[in-house]
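Why predict the complex rather than its parts? Because the way molecules touch one another can change local conformation, and only a joint prediction can capture that. The input here totals 756 residues.
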Amino acid sequence: MKFIIQRDRLVHSVQEVMKAVSSRTTIPILTGIKMVATEDGLTLTGSDSDISIESFLPTEEDGTEIVEIQQSGSVVLQARFFSEIVKKLPRDIVEIELATNHLVIIRSGKAEFNLNGLDAEEYPHLPQISEENMFKVPTDLLKTMVRQTVFAVSTSETRPILTGVNWRLENGELICIATDSHRLALRKAKIDTENQETYSVVIPGKSLNELSKILDDTNDLVDIVITENQVLFKAKNLLFFSRLLDGNYPDTSRLIPTESKTDIIVNTKEFLQAIDRASLLAKEARNNVVKFSTLTDGMIEISSNSPEIGKVSEEIQTEEVRGEELKISFSAKYVMDALKALEGTEIQVNFTGAMRPFIIRNTSDDTILQLILPVRTY
Amino acid sequence: MKFIIQRDRLVHSVQEVMKAVSSRTTIPILTGIKMVATEDGLTLTGSDSDISIESFLPTEEDGTEIVEIQQSGSVVLQARFFSEIVKKLPRDIVEIELATNHLVIIRSGKAEFNLNGLDAEEYPHLPQISEENMFKVPTDLLKTMVRQTVFAVSTSETRPILTGVNWRLENGELICIATDSHRLALRKAKIDTENQETYSVVIPGKSLNELSKILDDTNDLVDIVITENQVLFKAKNLLFFSRLLDGNYPDTSRLIPTESKTDIIVNTKEFLQAIDRASLLAKEARNNVVKFSTLTDGMIEISSNSPEIGKVSEEIQTEEVRGEELKISFSAKYVMDALKALEGTEIQVNFTGAMRPFIIRNTSDDTILQLILPVRTY
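Output of the joint prediction:
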């Protein structure tokens, strides 16, 4: 193996595959990055067995030479050292050569590194995925759908299935649902699909977070292929594999109330900032809980009380308060997370009494819904 | 106590005094910020007993009203909560009022905080410092002198005196010296002083770091007052007190070689970056040590070898290599720290053999000197 490559492109690809490499793996070779040079270009692979990322550097792109393959071959290099080294090389051009005994020579300017590599044959094979069940989502929509749901997954391993986001494809619509059993985030969108199959899979929240970081903000289509235990996201020169979570995702549809008793419409930012301020004193006390009350004349009050430190209250003028009077307590963090996930300047909140879950959504958009369980304090 | 104040100015002053507030103090009231309102303005104080910072907000500055004192008085508020609250207040104007029992009411827009305060009489008094022994240093020079020396203080409490920087004032010259006994940084400058007294004090490195962060990048003069056990820095509307370290600072003058056997002149950035690259592989092995060798034709080589991972070597074309051939090993970190502290594109290194300390300095500036002890490996 011998090739000459543009340093910045190599650095970029190494950083992409590094997102899958963990230093805490039970399989030592997975602390490495696999490099395979063929006449088409250079392929880098990183994996922690849950997530695998493959980044491809073609020999040429838009008429510019990116990598000149002088001899094909493959090797695995320690990810941590290799990634730090390529970032700090002195020149724009790097030469990488495989010598005997998996020794790799990296040259740039007058610097020469000799790194001990491993046999690429020892590196685990990526899942083989047949591309029958494929659908396409624009990158920016995909990232938005992840952002608006993934924060609500459970961080506890008590019910492992809840650490993932449920992706359901039915009737040409993709529905993403996450819940940690105290709150739920749901986002749906119409998407392009070639067949009318129905799926329901659960993708680990961690995988979706890493995927989101690695994808550029474009509207290029990402191909998504779902199999029994893997999902594959295919973007330009990039493959992102994640295992799926085993088990049945709970049916969340009956959690979502269809009626309400008190409804408010309020400016998103004012509501969010008032809760943020009230939560400053609530952090010390029980679980970051703030109180919400309807007042007269379309006013609401957000308050919190922490006997040792002090108390805070703030009134907000809403657009509208309709229905019954209400006093309710909730986790400031959960409501703030939900409000940050929503777009638009105004939101509506639909309450069904102080002990029942309430719904936050945009006034002008029914593709996203945030549900939160109150905290019993009154 | 009652006053109305511009939020941004209050936030700025609170952040200044917060630099002295520690959450790990044995004196509970020092977790608070003292506020004193007089007809002249508002004074905030934070202290961890080693460092004390006083920030003054005048009623008016450049014709703009900053704080309107409606009633004078004083109180101590929990620093952590108070600083978070003022940052997040909804309006540009804040009203702060002391009610009974040290309860403080903070109002901004429709938000109202009630915070439990403490009696300001319980707060320790700041040191009383007579201003006899004063000298003046421009802020930017002061920050530079700190930056170029403070990194070399010892982080170990084995010899507490070495955790500080020795400041000596003699013959109208200020000399700052720091050493952790493996390396030494020295910077001197001519300064304005009203009398011809000579001082030698040791200022804790931590104090100088905090001072540097709090001072703006101006060339306004800072008044420096030295007493037996305190130093006071006076900038505009700001007092910064630090205790001094007890004990005699070692005489470092005889450490600095006056002759040399091998001298090089080299581009600072090329030398720094080559050492940085070589250190990538040296981190794992013994103490981050890299090797330096003179070659022929004005070339030098930086190398490092870590049997498990690999090796690296790099040649650099110097401006000049003069004197004996040399192979020497040193801590990459110490040399990189020293190089970063130097200004200018070229530096000279003067060696006196592989077992003797060497000196790095600018080719065109003798006010700064960095000395480093080699590591015995050859």
